[in-house]
Design a protein that fits this description.
5% strand, three-stranded antiparallel sheet, cell division, Anaphase-promoting complex subunit 1, mainly alpha
Length: 359
């Protein structure tokens, strides 16, 4: 597999040489999405698609073969395609026909694409229902949802993130307090408890980045479009804790930029009016001042991890106020008018702020 790029009118071609551990993913996940596309071609109103149909199309999970020279075998590609099919069936709500023992059989093999497809598929099929059986199934795959002294089941990072997002889908728009508390801790807390176990094929930064984004999306789904109508969550100060990461990410000390009381964060160039906090509350009432935090005391002390948690907070806030037309959120997610200030923003933060503002 050759991946190359040519820039503009230049005749120079840049070849991308993936690491040996990345070659398998370059084949597996496109095949996974091919299976999703095949499932989405089935009408949601189809009545003949039952549990027997799923069983007849099942690929032998007991015979996964090892990759040859870094390339996935035909069996592994078939497993990935079937995993995508399961996810697509869940999006069409056809996965409700899957019986519980069959779901456990899929998950017991711990084949990552299959686990991701089953967890997200079941969560999508039961989205917004807060079904207790599916909730327990998802909780087993998310350490943050397990009891403090629970055994480590050694799930892959992708499976844990899928469990997080699946939890958000299952509890969509419910404002379930316990779930919101846990997800808030994972997005804004000083040290999330559900970080995935180290994977030798993925850097720790990449694992934590995907986990933070998954937690932010899940939190946004649970509080989707509730805004000020999110009952029972006022004492959590959810909005204020999210704004801390949007305006002044912990772990980086800001400095006075000389712009009439605006504080500039040197990492992402976000600008914050210290007196403009919602309900005239100081950010110090939610978290200690930035300069009082010890470097490394908060997950995200590196620029990449802090960026991930900042984008997660933007996702959560934007989804929480989806289609509410709240002028305060529009102001929080707005971009500066001057090009000088705009250049201080990280491109990802600027993109998500613009997207979130128009949600």
């Amino acid at each position: 597999l050759r991946v190359a790029a040519r820039f503009g009118s230049s005749k120079t071609t840049l070849d991308y040489q993936p690491a040996p551990t990345e070659v398998n993913d370059l084949y597996t996940w496109p095949t996974f999405h091919k299976g999703v596309a095949a499932a989405l071609s089935i009408s949601p109103d189809a009545t003949s698609l039952d549990n027997s149909w799923i069983l007849l199309n099942q690929v032998g999970l007991d015979t996964p073969s090892k990759s040859t020279m870094g390339l996935p075998t035909e069996t592994n590609l078939a497993l990935a395609a079937h995993a995508g099919l399961l996810f697509g069936l869940g999006l069409n709500r056809h996965l409700k026909h899957m019986v519980s023992w069959q779901a456990f059989h899929y998950l017991a093999v711990k084949h990552t694409p299959t686990s991701v497809g089953v967890l997200l598929g079941l969560a999508a099929a039961y989205r917004g229902t807060v079904d207790s059986t599916i909730a327990r199934l998802l909780a087993v795959h998310v350490p943050a949802l397990m009891p403090p002294n629970a055994s480590d089941l050694q799930h892959s990072p992708s499976t844990i993130v899928a469990g997080l997002i699946g939890t958000g889908l299952l509890y969509a728009e419910s404002c379930h307090r316990r779930t919101v508390e846990i997800l808030q801790q994972e997005v804004t807390g000083p040290r999330p408890v559900g970080l995935p176990v180290p994977d030798p094929t993925v850097t720790q930064d990449d694992q934590s980045e995907s986990y933070a984004l998954g937690a932010g999306i899940a939190l946004g789904l649970v509080t989707l479009a509730r805004g000020e109508r999110a009952t029972g969550l006022a004492d959590l100060k959810l909005v204020d804790s999210l704004r801390v990461w949007i305006d002044d990410p912990p772990g980086y000390s800001g400095h006075n930029s000389g712009n009439s009381g605006m504080v500039q964060n040197t990492a992402f160039g976000s600008y914050l009016d210290p007196l403009g906090v919602r309900e005239n509350q100081s950010l110090g009432a939610v978290f200690p001042p930035t300069h009082s935090r010890e470097p490394g005391s908060v997950l995200g002390s590196t620029p990449k991890l802090t960026l991930a948690r900042t984008t997660a907070a933007i996702w959560a806030l934007a989804m929480m106020y989806h289609r509410t037309n709240d002028p305060w959120v529009v102001q929080v997610l707005s971009l500066p008018n001057s090009s000088y200030r705009l250049k201080k923003f990280h491109p990802t933060v600027a993109l998500l702020r613009s997207l979130g503002r128009w949600l």
